[in-house]
Amino acid sequence: SICLSVSLSIFGISDPAAGCSSDFEARSAQHDLQSAFKNYDTQLHTRQQLEIHLQQLEENIPSEVYLSIRDRQLLDWHFANLEFANATPLSTLSLKYWDQDDDYEFSGQHMTVRSGFSQLPSKLAEDLDIRKQTVVRTVNYTEHGVEVIASEYSTNTEGGSCHTGKPVTFSADAVLVTAPLGVLKSNDIAFSPPLPSWKADAIQRMGFGNLNKVILCFEKAFWDPTINLFGHVNPSTSDRGECFLFWNIHRAPTLIALVAGEAAFKLESMSKEVAVEKALAALREIFGDNSVPTPTESLVTRWRSDCFARGSYSYVSVGSTAADYDFMAAPVASPSACPSRSPRPTLFFAGEHTMRNYPATVHGALLSGLREAGRIADQFLGAPYACRKEAPHTPSAVTPVSTAVPAPVNLNSDEGKLAVGISTAAISATEVCEARAPVSNGAQTTN
Predict the structure, then answer these.
(1) Cα three-residue angle 199-177-152, rounded to 5 degrees
(2) Of 25-34, 117-126, 329-338, 344-353, which one has max mean pLDDT?
(3) Is the pLDDT of residue 129 over 60?
(4) 3-state DSSP helix/strand/coil percent for the chain, to nearest 5?
(5) Positive or negative, the Cα torsion across 89, 90, 96, 97?
(6) Contact 420, 330 (CB under 8 A)
(7) Three-state DSSP class for 45?
(8) What value does the mean pLDDT take over residues 99-126?
(9) Cβ 302 vs Cβ 275: under 8 Å
(10) Residue 272 and residue 267: Cα distance in Å, rounded?
(11) Could you tell me the pTM of the whole model?
(12) For residue 110, what are the contacts with CB-CB under 8 A and spacing of at least 6?
């Protein structure tokens, strides 16, 4: 305004009204400029906040499918159920082969064995020489027989470790190894000579998972006794497998809470009191705080910490295939000193991890035992239904089983056993077609 007054004086102009108007306009412009600066500062701050938010979004890309919190929790429950079925977090499963056994499932209703599954092995073990309190440490096998070195043991229930003592030696014509896959993966049993690479590699490729349970016994049922099971939805993804499903054994009355996925591994380091309280907290969320009494008895499993299990059951892991079950089922022979012939096997394997069609099941383990019993009987007692004619043996036609990789065929069927005999024995196609049965003579000298 001073500059404006000076300019008007120079030109001989003197208008007070014009001077006031110019001063008002200048002040108004100054006010508008100050408002613009404030608005700029506000917008700049907003832009900075948006840039921070965009950076956070870039670091955490949102899902292509929008899910509400409740939707995510329900989806996590189904993921936990899948982790229960496979006894492992989904990140470790083979996307291609994880459900390779689905086509062979038995039909019919699910049943519970009264007084527990222990009734089955107890009945099968009647009149057998079962050596308890004895743990196998070494298996020495040759084409003439086997020697099993074991030792007496005691267990530390708190740490789950096993302490061995006085050694004991057993000699036999053959040995059937039914140790869980977790024990084999941990190299708790030494084999001499070492297992061939095709067998050892299959052991390491296959997965052996973990599933735990919290068992709660009550004086009376406070839940609906007519339902077999009910679920519990956990709030977070990391704990989705924690007591996510309860099995009802109403006649006991007992509830069995399943702990799957990552939660199964976390439970291994919990105290029994903490694990039981987590199961009770889940029940209180379902039935209310005043409806859930204190259990009369409780039991918490820790299968991964059990030195005689090292987990629960097998699964097809990333890098493994369904054929690894067949490699696990194939018997092993000691390398022969004579290159012109293959030794007969003296080392046999059974268990759910050797049953391609029925893995991770009790009936699969039972069927694998029957399979190997038939295989061993055929080898040592002969198979009257098999072809008796033998083809000439030549060094070029015979491959030692202990060093050759068996064909990845299904050993859970007669066709599989026949194929293994063909792949390792000098038997003509004509003789195989005439036999139309498992070739036990060929298997006796080559498997």
Answers:
(1) 125
(2) 344-353
(3) yes
(4) 40, 15, 45
(5) positive
(6) yes
(7) helix
(8) 88
(9) no
(10) 9
(11) 0.71
(12) 228
